[in-house]
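Researcher: Good morning. I'm working through a list of sequences from a screen, and I'd like to move beyond sequence-only analysis. For each chain I'm collecting a predicted structure so we can compare shapes side by side. This is the next one on the list. No need for commentary yet; just the structure.
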Amino acid sequence: MESIQIHVQPVQQSGSIWRLSASLHGLDEGPSELFYEIDAPGIDRLEPDGAPFLLPLLFEGMRLGRPLVLKDAAVCPMLVEGLQRFQLAWEIARPEQYRAVEIDAALHSSSPVVSAGHDTRISCFSGGLDSAYTLGTWLRRERRKGANQLLAAVMVQGYDIPLSRNREAKIALGQAHRVAGSVGIPLYSVRTNTRFLPLDWMDAHGSGVAGMLHLFQGAFGGGLMPGGLSFAEMNSICGTHPALDPWLSSRHFPITTDGHEAPRGYKTTILKDWPEARQNLRVCTHDTGIAGNCGICRKCVLTKCMMASHRIPLEGTMAGDVTYDQAVRIPLGSVFLDKQLARDTLIQARAEGLENEPWARGLRRALWRHRWVPGWNRRGPVVRGVGLDLTEPVDDESNQAPDDAHDSASKYR
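Model: Good morning. Structure tokens for this chain:
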């Protein structure tokens, strides 16, 4: 039976730069090598097992139905057992797309020597809202307990910032260093070609990030993955999931997903007393030619509205008030969860007495325009716990039937 073979190569080091790679055989498309280049000053030992190469290939193996064969490296028995359950969950949820496959790998019984202590953690950090929330709340909890746990952060070029955009990556890394430095933790960087693999990144990003974190199993006691969706927003399996991600752990390097308790709007509150984080926040993935945010796309404008609803200053990379026109043009019909974010933002704005601000009126109009969407109440969206009346006109244009809502939204995608 045809298989995907992963041949792990010896670790290479030059100063503080480490290079780990594996040659790949048995893929129909994609690269012939998977690599990581780690800039980790102060770390004198990186000796991961085979997990950083096995985990990113998992979804491609499930998609093709080909066993994964790991050569010249071993993995933890707990990880292999966990991946059997992880694969089964995805096969049940997406039987037309994935099926569980065999993992052929040598098993090791010994654990990596953790030089920094078994209770230390390293967190993936993109510079975005989810990662800022995880970093801030984790440090707050640990310091409240009087513990000196955690923490380091790691930023990756090759995920949301492509390998070809070196200038943007350099600026984004500088911004991330300012955020990490403000709370006294080190920030490392990784370059990888993981996304050159023919993966559905929406499904595979959790296992990909977990594999990257396993690079540091010789220096830290576990990895943190910032979660995107809150528990209330989850209605199906997704790329990172608090019930599934622990199965990406090894015995001595647990993977923990953090932040699922909080909806995205609430996460902006971590920025209120943390100027370095809000001034260097990076939420936009558009190729603007610069690091930072375009300020006009759906994600930028909606994040600004959420921050404004909590009276958080818009400055630095998020500078500039949202206008009525920008808010009303948010294509809420393209991403269903954005409607919930918009509704929650308007409820928060009303609680703060901001419902008549231009951005709030525009956001309310945007919801009105997109109320005729399958699964929605004909009289408007139903809001959890709090009524948000969208049945009355909200401005001079409100009496116009929103028959063109989807067409209008498509202009701004």
